Each structure stands twice: as C-alpha cells, then as structure tokens.
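WARN no homologs supplied; continuing
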Amino acid sequence: MDHLNLNGSWEFKAIEAYAPVPPAALKARDWLPAIVPGTVHTDLMRNALIPDPFVGMNERDVQWVGSLQWVYRRKFHITDELLRHDALLLVCEGLDTYAAIRINGKPLAKTANMFVEHRFDAKRFLTAGENLLEILFDAAVLRAKAIEKQNGPLRVALEPHRVYVRKAQYSFGWDWGPSLPTAGIWRNISLHAFSRANIADPFFKVIALQKNEAVVEVTADVQRIRRTHLSLRVTVTGEGTAVERTIPLHGAKVRCRLRIPDPKLWWPNGYGAQPLYRGTVSLIEKGKQIASQSTTFALRKIALIQERDSEGKPFVLSVNGMKIFCKGANWIPSDSFIPRIPESTYAKLLRMASEAHMNMIRVWGGGIYEQDAFYETCDRLGLMVWQDFMFACGEYPDKSWFLRAVTEEAAKVVRRLRNHACIVVWCGNNECEMLYCRENPGKGPDSMTGSSIFRSLLPGVCKKLDGTRVYWRSSPFGEGSPNGESSGTRHQWSVWSEWMDYDKYELDTGRFVAEFGFQAPATRRTLEEVILPADRHPQSAVMEHHNKQTEGSERLFRFQAAHHRIAGQFGDFILKAQLVQAEALKRAVEHWRRRKFKTAGALFWQLNDCWPVSSWSVVDSGLRPKAAYFYAKRFFAPLLVSFKRVADGCEVWLTSDLQTGLHGRCTIAVRSFDGKVVWEKETEFLSDPDVPAALLKVPGASLAGLDPACHYLHARYVSGNDSNAENRLLLAEPKHCRFPRPRLRLDVTETESGKFAIRVRSSAFAKDVHLECPGVDASFDDNFFDLDAGGEKIILCSAGTDLRKFRRRLVAASLL
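OK structure emitted
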C-alpha cells in the first residue's frame, strides 16, 4: 500500500456563520498558516492572535474561539502512478468534531465524531497534478446546544449540551480543567492507495492458554477490489518463536488458528515480565505479497472473581489465574490541546507510574481513547488499563441516530485497541448511573435515559469483537446502589468533596475503589510559569481561577487547618497543601491494602493534569511530581508496613504483594524527636503474600504519660531475602508537634552512570525532608521522606548540570 502523508503545513481561517467575528479575531478572517495535526487554539497562538489560555485568566478571553466555524485547506500533488491504483482512500484519524470535507470544490463527506478514524473513497474526486483539500469545522458548542434544544435537556453534570456531541467531554470544562472546546485535524491525515485487495483489523485472540502451548485465533477483514485468487499467510514471531500458516482465502473474512509452543506469559507490573509477540497477516497473489498488516499482542488470560463472602460480592481481577490487587491511578488527557502532547510525555508519566509500583491505569470516560503511544507503553511496562468508553456524568440520548453513532464508535474503538495486552477491562461509562440514582431516589439505573447503551449495546459490541476481557457497566457500579460498598466498584468522594477529613477513609469497606482523592496545588515552579508575581498568593483571583472545583480553594484551607499551621506565603501554602494530599492518599491506600482481597483495588484520582491547576493529580502539567507522588512510591511498594489505630493502642500490619512468603523480623519503637527510644518490641513473622496480618501492637498504656507533641512510632520489617519496609506515625497532628530544627547534612558524589548520589543525614527527627535544586532540571528518585535522629538516606538524582553547580544549588528542608 502506498501512502501520501497530508500532515504538516496547512492554512486556516474563521468563518462568520453564527455571529460577526469579534474584534480580537478580525485578523483570523484571512488565511493564516496552520500545522496539522493541531487545533484552532494552538494555530491561533502560533499566529499571536490569542494569548496562552493557561496563563493568568486568559481562558476567559478566548471563549469566542469555540463559537465560530473554521476552515482548513491545503494543496497536494497526485502522481499518475498513485492515481493508477484501484482505490484511493482519504484516511482521517481524528477530526474534531463536525467536519465537512471537500476535494477540488466537491463535497466528499461529513463527520460528527471526534473519537474515531474516518475513511472515504476519494479516487473519483482526485486528478493527476495539484489538488485542493478543504475541511470546514462547525462550532461544536453551538451545534450541541441546537441539538439539545431540538431533543430536550437531559440530567447532566456541568454543561448539559455536551452529551449530544461525540467529543471529549472535558473540553467543555470540568472540575479540574478549563473550558476550551477545540476544533481541527487533531490526528494524522493521509491518502492510502492500494490495488486488488487490502487487509484491515487483524486480531490475534488467545482462546486457549496452557503451560506448553497457546492457541491463537486470527481474524481479519479483506477488502477486495478485483476478483483474483489470493491466499493468506499468517506469522507469529517473538520470544524465540516463529510460527507460520498459509491458507486459501475465500470471501472477505479471515479466520484461522495458530498454535504457539512454550508460551511466554504477559504479567502486570510487579508480577513478572511483559513479553510481546508480533503477528502479521499478509495477502499473497501468485507467490507475491500484495498487502500486509502487523500488530503486537501478548499471551495472557483475564478473569473477574466475584464469589460471595461475608461482606457481599468482591471485585477481584485475576491475570493468568493469579489474583491481583490493583494499585494505580486515574488518567486524563495530558493537555487541553492533545496534538501537542509528545510521545515523551506519555513515556515519562507512565514510567513514573511504573516506578511508583502501580499496575493499573484507568482511562477516564470524559477524555479520549488515548493515542497509540499510551497503550504501547502500557503494554511494555505491564500497566493494566481499565478502559472507559467516552461517556461521563450524565444521561445520554437514546435516539436511534445517537445509538447508531455509538455502535459505530464502539466497534471502531474495540477493533483498534483489542490487540493491546494492557487493556483488561472495558467499562461503559464514568459515574452516569451513580449520579442518576443519587439525584432520583427510588429509581434504578435502568430508568436512566441512554441506559441501554451501557446495559446491552456496549457489552454486545465487546463480546462480538473481543470477548477476552471483562466488561463492566459503569464506574462505579454494583448490586443495589451503583456506589455501594458491598459489591462491585466504588468511588469514594464523601472524603474531600463532601468536606469529610481523610481519617474517614478507614471507615470505607468498598470492594474496588476506582476513584478517591485529595486536592493540592501544582508545584511552585509550574504555577510561577503561568501566574505573575503580584498574583502569587493562595487567595488571589488568579490562583482561585486555577482551581475549577466549586469551593475547591476553600477546601484547601479547611483541610490544611485541620493538620497544619495555616500558611499565608505562596510557597509554604503549596508545600503544606501537598503534604495534606500525600497523607490523605497514604491513609486511604494503607487501609484498603490491609483489606486485601476484601478490597481488591485502589486507584486514586488522578495521576496527571491537562493544565497548571490545583487538582487531585500527583504529577502536575509540567510533569513535576507533588509530594504525594513520592508517598505513592512507598504506599504502593510490594511490601508495606502500616499502622492501624485501634481503641486501646496501635497495631502494626504487614501487607505483601510479593509472590512468595517472607520470613523476617518486625521492630516497633516509640521514639522522641531528639532520638531517644522510649519503648521497643521485636518479633519474628512468617508472611503469606495474600493475607495481610497484624505483626505487633503498641498498647495504649505504653503511650500514656508521653507528650504526643514530640514523640512518634517507628516500625521496620526486615526479611532474610533483603525485602524490607518501614513506616512512621506521628502521635499528634503536625500543627501541634514541636518539631526540632534538624541539621541536615548533604554529601554529593557522582556515580558511574552519571547520576548524583546524595547522602542526607539528620541530627534530629526530620519530617518530610525535601530536596530542591533551583535553576536545575533535577529528578530525584525519592523525596518528602522522614529521617530519624542520626539517620541517613541516599537519594539518586538525574540533573542536566555538572557536579559543582549541582552541589552549589542543592538545598534541603523539612517540615517545621
């Protein structure tokens, strides 16, 4: 197949279809240079016609962009050789959203779905030599409002008209994101030319998996242009395997089976390796290959275990017969302007998730079906993907035209993604049934408008075109209440959003908690890139604008006041808000991991951000980690020591995700901030990886008479195979503690790999020691950690500078 890439330089301009162009956009009525893939907003910024919407409160000044039509055009050359092919398809991988396509002045097609690829037979519109391609984008916001007016309003959170358009729902504005409804050619666009026949949508489906052999069923679609005798060759290579089979081709459907000897299984992060195979389907005519399609796939089996127990019905995922406690985070698009997200951003964020011992990422239903780089990276890193379909927080139309569009979308999505080993769950939507039932007491989820989409349409498509994964109706969903604690999946938002503090996490017995979280501002450096010095105050209008939750800024103060001395200075406020977020997530995850597998998953909201904001993310839009990210590396670690507060003291628990038992020793001590050991106890313990257990207990009597403002608990578990874990617990809130001012000593050396090794030593107990290197792009492998009096810790750092400059700029501080 020949390809003609149509990305790159285009032209665009505004069309006054609904209202006159505002004064700020007068120059946009003329043809201007554009870059494809891209968006109208990024093209306008490149032409200096709008300011950066992320800076200050500029978002408010660019709202006019979404109320206009925009037309894009480019000229391209077609050779006689290309035109001689039997078929010339215009392949638009992503058009946002209502698009009318013309070639050489003639209408080719119209589209109305941002999420999926569109293919059109364009040969009869093309001529040898110069051709003109034009794409007119309607104003999605105005079109959606018109459709809503025609069909009637539905019960929808946030902008109600958004549910009528198949477009990324977060672009209309969310409680963590700006209102920037985009338009444009947001994914690749090209011409595909072929003759005789072509192959589409190969699927390598694992139908049997045994120790010595895997059976894979291969299917594909064949588009024939001419009647000719063809055969099909299927090959699988990788992991020391090379299997091939050739069969005669009859009709437009391919179906055959291959047997793969000595199968190498794909495992989630922390449970084993992630071997990938390459499958290729080729069309052969007279011994010559005329078309071919390849894909990677893996050998693994997914199941959902829901055997009733004393608490109800659990939700436990198993991979290759092994139960997995799912540890991870929710994922949103990493920019409001998706085409400018480089592959390096996907690589960095997902590597950070893997390094924090996560094994699952949930792709949230208000964003997009992610870019190929996302799924390919998850395949390689062993990050299981919970994949929502793109529906969120509302009823959706049940009109026949909408159901047809959703059926087509779902089929295209499943075909595109089904070979990815990482995807383990298809999920119908985000919070639609939960919100409907909460706002309509006495009504069940099947009464919701559009419920058939999630009850029958989507599972039907998944079963027909895939059948290798779990389908779940919604997140959350279970028996009885869609957001109950006794079965299915749960979203825990009583804490934070309903003003409850994070100690209440320990009362929640959800079976699989797919959302929970606490807000914190982006890092200071990220915020300083978009907020002027005069506005760098926790209560400035700009700071409040960069928090999209109703009363979100007020919550930051409420919970900081509960745990810390309120900070008025910009940097101190950011630090303490991030520490509250970190402690909140820690408290929640430690509690649910102690319940393994009664609770079988903890996915916090959220990993990443789409712009600089105070939100629930642990990595901000500048890809800079907050304190909670480093906490996650510890509370998601395979071996976890945690404290459980009980009426007559405090228990020390061990939770293990290691695949073998551990024989080790646990020591617990009551220490003073100046280093004295007031009480200590040690015991041996043999652990079971699937059964968390209490190791020791500190009786309340051992703490009686101690000043909680200057003492803490320290627990350490050390195993004979070098597996170890430790944890600390303050006896009073940080705001009440009398922390000493420790002397922090830093010794820096350069390793053979070019990283810097930083030995941090403290003269007294130091809470939340954090390292910075101002003016240097430094990446620390750990941060925001506690040190005992006389203790030390070695931190590795990658930094784009020399040792001398790094030493000079490196600073350390702790919570005081």
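DSSP finds 15 helices and 44 strands in the chain.
OK
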